[in-house]
Design goal:
The complex is a heterotetramer, with two copies of chain A and two copies of chain B. Chain A has helices at about 10, 35-45, 65-70, 90-95, 105-120, 180-190, 230-235; strands at about 20-25, 50-55, 75-80, 100-105, 125, 140-145, 145-150, 155-165, 170-175, 190-200, 220. By secondary structure, chain A is an alpha/beta fold. In chain A, helix 5 (about 105-120) packs across helix 6 (about 180-190). The N and C termini of chain A lie far apart (about 40 Å). By secondary structure, chain B is of the alpha/beta class. Chain B has helices spanning about 5-15, 85-95, 130-135, 200-205; strands at about 25, 45-50, 50-55, 75-85, 100-105, 110, 115, 140-145, 155, 170-175, 180-185, 185-190, 210, 215. Classes of the chains: A alpha/beta, B alpha/beta. Chains in contact: A-B, A-C, A-D, B-C, C-D. At the A-B interface, helix 5 of A face strand 3, strand 4 and helix 2 of B.
Chain lengths: ~240, ~220, ~240, ~220
C-alpha cells in the first residue's frame, strides 16, 4: 500500500466544479498552502474547479492561501466560524458585495459537525447557540430540563490537509496547534489529500503516536518546506506571485 | 454427505473478493479465517474494533502480549504502518463508512438483506458487541456461513426469525455451497458448487434463488 | 498542580453507594485491576460502596477484577456490550437469577454515548441498532432518507482508568489496545481516577503524544507492576486471594 | 473624569477569583490580560480552543512559531505539562463542562445572565468564533468589561438589545467600577469603587443593582 502521489497537480486533480472542499488550519497554523495554491494553478490553467463550497474555520488572510482561492473567484460559499483576520479584505469585499455566501457556525459546533460527518452521526444536540440568531430554523429539544439545538453533520468531497509526518499508509502526525481541524477533516471527506513535511515508510511512525490513522487518508504528498501563511503575509505576498 | 466447502474453503473464497489496499473488519470466529487467505500481491489492512489498524498473525504461544488483542480477545501482532486509537475513533471508522468490507458470521440472512447473528432468543445472556455497528458501517457487508444449520435447516430465508442485527445490510453471502448476492430484495445466485444442481441448492435455501446473467462454478483449492 | 494521591485506598475513597462508575478496559486489556480490587477491599471492610451501576464493555472474566466486583455483590446494574467471556460464570449466574440488571448497548453506541457524555452532547443519532430489539422505545428519525436511532449520553460519578504513563497534571498515554474505552471514560466522569504504570513530572510527556489531556483527570496513582486480568485467569486466581 | 479601573486593573481583579489548579479559557482581547495577574502561589492552566492546554507567555519578538498560537492567532509558548489536541477534543473540554472558568468580553450583559458579545448588528461581516460554545461550557462564565460604552451608555442592562451570544449564561461581571454577580435574574452588587456612591453606580447601570449582605470596596493595586 502506497498512497503517495507524484505532484501537487496530482494531489488536487479530483476536485471538480461545485464540490465541497474542507481545508484544514486555524488561521495559518495547519493551512495546506501548497495544496491550495496548486488548486489555484489548475483553475488559472483550465477554468476549473469553480463554484466550490469551502469549509474552514476562517475566511483567509491577506492574498495567499484561502484568501487567494477566494480572490481567484473559485469559491461560491464559505462555511466558517470566524471570517475575520488581520487582513480579511478579500472575503469582506466579496461578502459585502453579495458575491459570496456565508454560513456562520460556532467554532465548536463546526468542529463537532465535521467529526459527526466522519463518524456517521447524522445529527446531534448541542447547547451552543440556543436562543441566538445562529439557531434560527434549527430544531430544538429539551433533555433533562435544558434546551439544545439540533445540528447536522458536515461532509466534504475532498479535504486538503497539512500534516507534519505521513507514512505511505497515510498515518499522520501534526505539529503543535497546527493539528486543529486537520484530523477531523480527514475523517469527513470522501477523499483526503495530505501535504506532509516528511513522508516516511510504513512502520516509521510509532503506532502509539499516530494522530490520524491511515484509513482516513487517500493521498499523501511530501512538501518538505511548506510556507507559513503568517510569514507570507508579513512579507505582503500575493498568490499567484505575479497576481 | 454431499460435497460442501470446509470453513477454510469458504474463508478462502471470501478472501478472493478483497481488493488490494482494502480496509477490512473480520467478525469473531469463522470470519477471522479470511485473513490467512489473502491472494498473493494483495495487501489488506485489518481493523479490529478495540482499537488497532493493521494487525497481523497471532504470536507464538507463550509470547502473547495481553494488551495487544483483537475483538475476540485473542493475542495478535502488528504490521508496519499500524495505529492505535480509542473506541470512539474506532467506531467512527466503522459507522462513518471508512471500512471497505466487513465480513460477519450469521444465524440467518434474509432475501431483503436483514441479518440475525447476535441472539438465538430470549434465553441465556444476550451479548451484541460491535456487530450492530459493523452492519451499518462498512461499504460492503458480507456474510460467511454454512449454507444450512447443523440440523440441515436453511439459514438463507425469506425473513429472519431470530432477533435482527441489522436491517437490509447484507450484500453478499459466501456459504459452503454457493456465492449469493442480495440485491433488490432477492437472493441472486452468482456461483455454486459444480456437483450440486440448482434444484438441490434451492432445496436447501429458504427463499427463491434468482439468476441474472449466469451462474459460475464455485471453485476453491483443497485447504 | 499535583494530582497524585497517596494510596489505592485514597484513589477510590469518593465512590459512594448507588454511584455510577465507569471502568476502563476491553476484556483484560486496560482494565484497572488494582483500583477495582481496592474498591472491593473497601467494601469488605466497611460494607460500602454497594448498589453500583458499572459501565464497562464486558461483564468480567473469572473471579478477578470486574468479575470479583460483581461477585462481591457490589453491582446493581451493568451497562455493557458483551457480557460473555471465557469464564463469565459470576455475571451469568446473577443475571439468570434475576439478581443483576443488564443494559445491553452495541459497542460503538456505548463508546459514542460515553464520548457524548464527556463532550456535552446530550443526544445523537446513529444507524446502529435501527430496526432491532435494542432500539425498542428509543426515538427514531430520518435524515437524508435513512433511518436513525436517537441515543443519549452516558456520564458517571467516577471513572476508574488504567494508563501507561501519567504526569502530575494528569496527562496520559496508554499502551497498545489497552487504550480502548479509557480515554473516553476520562472525559465522561465527574472524577477520573487513574492508575498508571509510571507517574512522571509535568513536562516529561511530549505534548504531541498526550492521548488524554490532564483536564479530564482528577487523581493519579502509580501502580508500577499492574496485574493483567488474562494472566490472573490463566493462573485461576480469585480476589480476594482468600476468597 | 471620575475614577475607574484601567483594563489591567479589571483583569487583575478577575484574576484574584481564579483558584489554584483551575482550568481557564480567556477570550480574545481584554480577557487575555487576566493571565498575567495570577496571584503568587496559584497555578492556573490556560486552555485555548485551537488545541493547547497549558500555554504560557508570548515568545520574544522574532522567535514566534506560527504553529504555536492561541485563539487570537498570537504566538504563545508552552509550560511543562502542556498537551495538544484537535478541535473536537478541544470543544469537548468546553462544551462538556471541563473548564472551571471562562472569562469573556461583552457588548452587553443582562440581569437574566444573557450575554451579547459577538455581533453589533446586521452590518459588516459577522464572526462568532468559539464564544457561543464557551458560554455554555465552562462551570463559571465571567465577563470583564468597562462598565459603560465609549459613549457612556450602560452595558449592563435589563435585556440585551444586540444579538445574543448565550442565554442566561453569565454569573459574574468585573467592570471598571464594580464586581457584580448575576443571580436569580438580578444584578447583585458585591464590590464597588469606594469613591463612587451607590446612586452614581446605579446611574451608569441599565438595571437595578440588588444588595445582599453587604458591598465591599473594590480595591486593586496601581498597574
Amino acid at each position: 500500500m502506497d498512497k503517495r502521489v507524484a505532484s501537487l497537480a496530482d494531489a488536487v486533480s479530483t476536485i471538480e466544479d461545485g464540490m465541497t472542499v474542507m481545508i484544514g488550519g486555524f488561521g495559518g497554523a495547519g493551512a495546506p498552502i501548497e495544496l491550495i495554491h496548486a488548486l489555484i494553478d489548475r483553475y488559472r490553467a483550465t477554468g476549473h474547479p469553480g463554484g466550490l463550497t469551502v469549509i474552514n474555520n476562517n475566511a483567509g488572510n491577506g492574498h495567499v492561501g484561502l484568501a487567494a482561492l477566494i480572490e481567484a473567484g473559485m469559491v461560491r460559499k464559505l462555511v466558517c466560524s470566524f471570517p475575520r483576520s488581520a487582513d480579511p479584505v478579500v472575503f469582506t469585499e466579496l461578502y459585502l458585495g453579495g458575491k459570496i455566501e456565508l454560513e456562520l457556525v460556532p467554532q465548536g459546533t463546526l468542529a463537532e459537525r465535521i467529526r459527526a460527518g466522519g463518524a456517521g452521526i447524522p445529527a446531534f444536540y448541542t447547547p451552543t447557540s440556543f436562543g441566538t440568531d445562529l439557531a434560527k430554523g434549527k430544531p430544538v429539544a429539551e433533555f433533562d430540563g435544558r434546551s439544545y439545538v439540533q445540528e447536522r453533520w458536515l461532509k466534504a468531497d475532498v479535504a486538503l490537509v497539512k500534516a507534519e509526518t505521513a507514512d505511505t499508509h497515510g498515518n499522520l502526525t501534526f505539529r503543535a496547534a497546527a493539528r486543529n481541524f486537520n484530523p477531523l477533516m480527514c475523517m469527513a471527506a470522501a477523499e483526503t489529500v495530505v501535504q506532509a513535511r516528511r513522508v516516511v515508510e510504513a512502520g516509521a511512525i510509532d503506532p502509539e503516536t499516530v494522530v490520524t490513522p491511515g484509513i482516513f487518508v487517500q493521498k499523501v504528498l511530501e512538501v518538505p518546506d511548506p510556507a507559513q501563511e503568517e510569514d507570507l503575509n508579513l512579507a505582503h505576498a500575493r498568490y499567484p506571485l505575479g497576481g | 454427505m454431499s460435497a460442501r466447502l470446509s470453513s477454510n474453503q469458504i474463508a478462502w473464497r471470501a478472501a478472493q473478493d478483497i481488493a488490494d489496499g482494502a480496509y477490512v473488519n473480520l467478525g469473531i470466529g469463522l470470519p477471522e479465517k479470511v485473513a490467512q487467505y489473502q491472494p498473493p500481491g494483495r495487501e489488506a489492512i485489518f481493523h479490529t474494533e478495540n482499537g488497532i489498524l493493521n494487525f497481523g498473525e497471532p504470536p507464538p504461544k507463550g509470547e502473547e502480549d495481553w494488551d495487544l488483542i483483537n475483538a475476540g480477545k485473542r493475542a495478535v501482532t502488528l504490521k508496519p504502518g499500524a495505529a492505535f486509537f480509542h473506541h470512539a475513533d474506532s467506531f467512527a471508522m466503522v459507522r462513518g463508512g471508512h471500512l471497505d468490507v466487513a465480513i460477519l458470521g450469521a444465524y440467518e440472512v434474509a432475501e431483503n438483506g436483514d441479518l440475525a447473528n447476535w441472539s438465538t432468543g430470549p434465553k441465556g445472556v444476550p451479548a451484541v458487541g460491535g456487530a450492530m455497528d459493523l452492519v451499518h458501517g462498512a461499504k460492503r457487508v458480507a456474510v460467511i456461513t454454512d449454507h444450512v444449520t447443523k440440523d440441515g435447516k436453511p439459514k438463507l430465508l425469506k425473513r429472519c426469525t431470530l432477533p435482527l442485527t441489522g436491517v437490509g445490510c447484507v450484500t453478499r453471502i459466501y456459504t459452503s455451497l454457493a456465492v449469493i448476492d442480495v440485491a433488490g430484495g432477492r437472493f441472486v445466485l452468482r456461483e455454486k458448487l459444480a456437483s450440486l444442481s440448482l434444484d438441490e441448492l434451492q432445496a436447501q435455501t429458504g427463499a427463491p434463488l434468482a439468476i441474472e446473467g449466469g451462474v459460475a462454478d464455485l471453485v476453491v483449492p483443497e485447504l
